[in-house]
């Protein structure tokens, strides 16, 4: 087993520094995967991409690249976490993945000048670096904070991430929107990739300065890898004896599929299911008369005036979701003090079910904004509460990285299944049916939460 580090649990500086890594890394999912890079990628890549002898749509090959990086994290993290716990060097692993992801972001500055293989390699390594670093980052939570502080500290981390990422997004949009020509706009986008990587690495140094080092100094070798594997087996054997932990993770695995898919694909829903021409005085006479429903909405949204409004509105909705998620995280943490973590998660999952039902019927921009408000509110709460609830359920142990690797593996596999399911149903039917299918995941997750043992729920409630 790994040796204990020499620091006092509950140290305010250490806890604040840990939370600040969310400020550092959250710019990647917002600027790179959600807002700026997708626009750049969509403009610079051809509709059909020739790759390894096959032909793929540019969206399809991008999705496969992201999915493969998630699966690799899922495969590697249990072994790496076992090695980190045995050798006592989780901060080194966290730093490695951080630097890999940030360097990949900065490499995107040269994206359009690179060979096709290298282009998708840096997309792959950027995502690998982000999710890989979170395995080790999350595992610090039970190690640095007392159980009664887990909910609040987890919420603080997510909130700092939301604030930091919005600040950089606003700076990035100011640069891009202020450019006079399309060529200059794309040049400004390239600069945002550089800034994102520098932001991620630079602010992470605050976390690394305060996060504890292990007193155990072991060099990575075949013996250490073997010992890491034995460490993982030991944790798995302990894990299988904790009934409440197993049942909670089953519920988390299912509802997390839907949560992560919504966070990843929400922009596509807004682009394809919302009629952004509502309220605009434009000529629609040139549209085909035999096209109806969402297909007609897509055609309307391609009209230049509508497309411009749509792009601005989507950015506004992204910022709205990020800002509303901040009070959402603290609100759910506050209520957990009175009704317990599991009951709070039931409320959050129940609200997601309602959101999925409403999403099927929305059509206008104002309806989309209202939906975005509630998505942001619940997103912050369910993310922070899921992490802190799992942290509280862990036994007293120094093997926190190995335990959290199971949590992260389930999240990554769930994301992959959810995104593939969403894409399949959208292709076969419509994007509205994809959202309704996500509701099934939430319903199953709700049912599974009901089976988390009552005594464990009471224990969680009593310690928050």
Alpha-beta content class: mainly alpha
Rounded average pLDDT: 82
Q: State the domain count.
A: 1
Order of helices and strands: HHEEHHHHHHHHHHHHHHH
The rough form would be described as globular
Report helical residue fraction: over 70%
Strand order of the largest sheet: 1-2
The CATH homologous superfamily name equals MFS general substrate transporter like domains
**Secondary structure tally, helices:** 17
CATH class: Mainly Alpha
Please give the number of β-strands.
2
Radius of gyration: 22 Å
The CATH architecture category equals Up-down Bundle
Low-confidence stretches: 1-5, 455-464
The percentage of residues in β strands lies in under 5%
CATH topology: Growth Hormone, Chain: A
For the largest beta-sheet, the strand count, sense and barrel status come to: 2 strands, antiparallel
Distance between the termini: 29 Å
